[in-house]
Amino acid sequence: MRTTFAAIVTLLATLSAARAESWTAYRIPEAGTSVDIPMSLFTELAGKPDGFGQQFRTADGRADLTVQAVSNSQRLSPSAFLAKKEPPSGIIYKRVTPKFFVVSSIKRDKIWYDRCNFSRGYVHCVLINYPAAEKRQWDRVVTRVSHSLSAN
To answer: Whole-model pTM?
Structure first.
């Protein structure tokens, strides 16, 4: 119980820090992608995704973030692109417009959130996975990351 309490206190302190001045604009110059990332929260590099970008994770591995830009040479619409990805069944939240899509659900006690914006031959995406039990603490982080995603 003491370990769980300590983990929660650490997480809350980290999320509070992420709300402070620790946000950095991450850019993918090849595609013009830009997104705000709380670098004090996602401190570890975790590999490269398909296309251009970077994967990040928290120091304790509880959450991860992928910023990615992939070519859309077929000029697929958000709806067609999402269908081609074959997302898992049981999506809890889904919004598709002519310029972007957002999907989210829960898998193995983690919330996965995927937003992709479409422009100039690229699909610009952020994918975030975090503990479902900590949804309320992550809401502000996910919202800011999602709303800051853009293509210049």
So the answer is: 0.83
- Say if residues 96 and 78 touch (Cβ distance below 8 Å): yes
Q: What is the pLDDT of residues 20-62, one digit of tens each?
A: 459 999 999 999 999 999 999 999 999 999 999 999 999 999 9
Q: Which residues contact 88 (CB under 8 A, 6 or more apart)?
A: 105, 107
The residues spanned by each domain of the chain are: 2-151
Closest by alpha carbon to 50, among 149, 115, 127?
A: 127
Q: CA nearest 110: which of 134, 126, 82?
A: 134
**8 Å CB contact between 110 and 130:** yes
SS3 category, 68: strand
Give the 3-state secondary structure of residue 35: strand
As given in the structure block, the two tokens for residue 78 are: 């958000």
CATH class (in words) of the domain with range 2-151: alpha beta
Q: Please give the structure tokens belonging to residue 12.
A: 């809350």
Amino acid in the structure at residue 16? S
The residue count for the chain? 152
